[in-house]
Known about the structure:
Elements: H1 2-18, H2 21-42, H3 48-76, H4 89-109, H5 114-136, H6 140-158, H7 167-198, H8 201-204
Amino acid sequence: MTIWLIAFMVAFLLPILNGSWRLGLIGLGLQTTLLAVIITSSSHELSLPLGLQLVDLVFVRGVLVPAILISVLRRVGISRDHDLLPTNFIYWAGLFILIGMGTWFGYLLYPEDYGRALQCGTAAAGLLSALFVLSLQAAGVGQIFAILLMENSIILFEFLNPHLHSLALQLAISVVFIFLILVFRTFLLQLSTLTSNEGTGEDKDLI
Length: 207
């Protein structure tokens, strides 16, 4: 599982450092696919709730959500380059300090279990990174990236105690999440309309 956890961390760290919203959304989709691999490796038998959760992670969150958001961002004409974190050494240092704190937190909770310590540390690092990005972002696309990274990190936390939701609850979670993404889509389209009506280049940065 170690390789999947490292890949999970790389999937959100590279887009933040690279400054590409497209890579960021693809990375978020990769994260949910990795979550599906992790939950599958911890489950011994396939069941209907597990199958629905895998569909939610791989198809809904891993494919459908990035496709919807990439489509709407192309429609509003946002630049390919979008710094999720200011390209400044101080901010980058702060990010790596938070990641280090997250991994250290995992070790403090599970000093005798390397696997669980790494999983908890990776989830904590993702959550702290999401809060850091969210605190620095005024643009809608950056805020959405941070919120979805936070969601993925919380799911990874939940996998520390593997359990399956009931079929109805898992279906409700998927429906609510899709509704949330549609709200994000509407928000970006409305914000694009408002900023274009204002006619100032600075307002466009809010997208």
